[in-house]
Amino acid sequence: MQEYLILFAIVFGVNLLPAFGPPTWAIIVFYGLTSDLPLPGLVVTAALASSSGRYILAHGFRLLASRVSEKTQKSLAAARAAFERRPHHSWLALVFFAVSPLPSAQQFAAVGLAGVRIFPFTLAFFAGRLVSYSFYAGTAQLADQYTDIGDIFRASLTSPWGIALQIFLLGGLAVMLKVDWTKIFGPAPEHTDPDSHGSD
């Protein structure tokens, strides 16, 4: 039981980070090589921990969004309303969260900033991680035959492409806050002045 709690705490903590944390798959490989945890327990524990961490991370960015200027809040509300007006976009986004190879921290940050419902994205993320973590845990022994676990962690943390990608995605979050989405999508319904339509 203690091993499960330690695994959960490590993965949960890593997934609270908005950027530059070690990838969870590397932790899965490490546990697959060094522990006696059965694969189903390892996978489910890691998936629950990572999903919980991302869920809290998204709520942290939602709190941040509530503290920005009123103009920025109206802009983010316009982006959320535009997203919610198109149900097929929601389904595509959920699928993307389940299978995306991109770093998920910035994706959850964007969901939190936009103010859309976090739980469906967390559920899609959890389902996708059950599959991907099963793959990593199941192939851990194969990885051990070709590389050292230390090399895996070093490569995951120091990859120039990986660092550049995270910086790019963080820049995307900054742009998301700076763009006036009301000029693109129009104001959200809750920010529409009812008197503005009185002469129509």
From TrEMBL:
The entry's keywords: Membrane, Transmembrane, Transmembrane helix
Transmembrane domains' residue ranges: 7-33, 39-57, 118-136, 157-177
Name of the protein in its database record: DedA family protein
